[in-house]
Amino acid sequence: MERGKMAELESLETAAEHERILREIESTDTACIGPTLRSVYDGEEHGRFMEKLEARIRNHDREIEKMCNFHYQGFVDSITELLKVRGEAQKLKNQVTDTNRKLQNEGKELIIAMEELKQCRLQQRNISATVDKLTLCLPVLEMYSKLREQMKSKRHYPALKTLEHLEHTYLPQVSHYRFCKIMVDNIPKLREEIKEVSMSDLKDFLESIRKHSDKIGETAMKQAQQQRNLDNIVSQHPRISGGKKSKKEVCASSDLEVKNTSPMSEQDSGILDVEDEDEDEEVPGAQDLVDFSPVYRCLHIYSVLGARETFENYYRKQRRKQARLVLQPPSNMHETLDGYRKYFNQIVGFFVVEDHILHTTQGLVNRAYIDELWEMALSKTIAALRTHSSYCSDPSLVLDLKNLIVLFADTLQGYGFPVNQLFDMLLEIQDQYSETLLKKWSGVFRNILDSDNYSPIPVTNEEVYKKIVGQFPFQDAELEKQPFPKKFPFSEFVPKVYNQIKEFIYACLKFSEDLHLSSTEVDDMIRKSTNLLLTRTLSNCLQTVIKRKNVGLTELVQIIINTTHLEKSCKFLEEFITNITNVLPETVHTTKLYGTTTFKDARHAAEEEIYTNLNQKIDQFLQLADYDWMAMEPGSKASDYLVDLIGFLRSTFAVFTHLPGKVAQTACMSACKHLSTSLMQLLLEAEVRQLTLGALQQFNLDVEECEQFARSGPVPGFQGDTLQLAFIDLRQLLDLFIQWDWSTYLADYGQPTCKYLRVNPTTALILLEKMRDTSRKNNVFAQFRKNERDKQKLIDTVAKQLRSLINSHHS
Predict the structure, then answer these.
(1) Which are the contacts of 19, defined by CB distance < 8 A and separation ≥ 6?
(2) CA gap 323, 342 in Å, rounded
(3) Do domains 434-455+491-607 and 642-810 have the same CATH topology?
(4) By the 8 A CB rule, do 346 and 214 touch?
(5) Distance between CA atoms of 674 and 667, rounded to whole angstroms?
(6) CA atoms lying within 13 Å on the CB side of residue 102
(7) 144 and 153 in contact (C-beta within 8 Å)?
(8) pTM > 0.85
(9) How do residues 720-750 score in pLDDT, each as one tens digit?
(10) Which of 105, 175, 394, 532 gets the highest tally of CB atoms within 10 A of its CB?
(11) Residues 706 and 646: beta-carbon distance below 8 Å
(12) Dist. CA 318–CA 329, nearest whole Å
């Protein structure tokens, strides 16, 4: 039973479940029925469910049938109405189809028109959008076109400003366009192109000013020369004070104009082309020859691009290189003045440009840079001038060089550069100038001395007399009283030398001009140079003439007379220097002229040469002496050579009338002493081994001729027998031997009153030995005669006593 109950309960539950499923199927949307049916098929009561489902379907069919039976008539009526409606619907359909066909036919044109309208509206929208976009793009394109045009016309700074506006103002508005991206990509390239082109212009400018530095410097130096001439005129005429501007004022006004010229303008040219209308007569400024706009453009372009420091370094580096090239002098610069002038022009041109850049730019170059360049230039220029000027041997070239250096220094000083070292170097060149002058005047003096006839200047009329007196300060009352024709005591070289000394002083004075030296310094320089001329150059020339082999006694006498007059003229040279320097000789530290010493030395040298020349002439006559030392008897007169010698001396001393008394007396005394000494040597020379008393007596005749000459007074001024004393040694020696007065000699030897005081025992012994040898040779067979033996014994005795005197004297 329990099982039966259990089965019954299960069947009830199943039936309830099936009922639920059926209700769910009836009420649930068909889309969600799947899970419900799955639960049926998952269960074990599928058959039962199907039975239940069939039973439910049958129930619903019965209900539908009941429902249909209830509403059948209405349904039939509805069907009948529906059939009627179908016919009307068909008609309506046909009408609608016909209407639609007509509408379609009629609407085709409208559709076409609408399509066209649609296209027009689309085009209108596109055009409007295009116009709007082009409105934004056109300024960009215009600016770009303007940029290219500016670059094409080489207006790089405006092009750079245009590029800045294009990049920061216009391109951001149309940055999404492809062409704008291309422009943006090209902007760095354009900037670089502007930099390169402006740098190329700068390089062209640097090359141009390197080539034209010569012309720039030449113009600047011409301006300085004109300014100096104007200053000289103003200093001479103080009332003339108005009129033209000074160089500094002109430069200042020019600088002001440059500073007021904006480098940012569209036209970057004509910066230095502005000239004052009131200065039409002025020479154009050195800066006016150069267009500096490439420098300004490049500077501003690099400044805008943030590369100013790069530009400054490049500019300074290139200019330093150019400075080194400019400062390198050509190897043949010393040959002509044009070589120096071109060298100076280039240096001046370089620094004029740099000075202008300094004053017209802000920091491109600074004073320290300029000073550094100038210090380098100054040292190299001075070194070059020292080297090349040392090759100059022409004083006129050295003087022209000095004037050029002064102009060079004045020009650069006008631009504010210190030039003291240049003036210091000019003092060094002054010494060299003096040396070249001395060399030149050495040749002048040599020509004067070589061409002189060494004869007193004859004058035939008053005009010639005044001309010579005007050339040389000479006053002689006695000469003035003499009638024409008459003669000056000196020869032509005296006024010529005097005038050349004055010309030398003028030449020295020319070098001192414009050196900013005081009168005292100029005076000292002239006096020192003149002293060198006198003591070295003129003195050497005179000494050369005096020492010449072919110079005669007449020339030497005239030289002594000439130097005497030149010595007297030294005070006039002192006055001449004082007049041109305005420095009194009494001033402290004033150098004195050494002309007096020079001419005294020359005169003394001439005197010595006269003495030497006379002695040489005497020696030449003595070489003609031909004594027969073995002659037994003397001749009746003096030797011919000695007569000729005395005749020569008389004629020579007759020329000495114009010489100072002491000179003539000294010359005469020197000649007589030399003659006496030479005769003594002739008598005692070793080659004369033997001599006779007859030869000695002939020799005595010659000495007497000499003494006669001395007594005749060939030169006035000797007191008593002074001149005869030159032959006293010979006279006493000959008297001793001819008179054979040995007893007196030996007895009185050594006493002040000795008759033969001047006879040296050695000399007497030598001569005695020669006579003893002769006696022995000639009296070999006669020695047996008593008197000959006695004489030989006497000679031996005297010789023995003389040796005793000599030995005692030596001991």
Answers:
(1) 52
(2) 15
(3) no
(4) yes
(5) 10
(6) 5
(7) no
(8) no
(9) 778 888 888 888 888 888 888 888 888 888 8
(10) 532
(11) yes
(12) 19
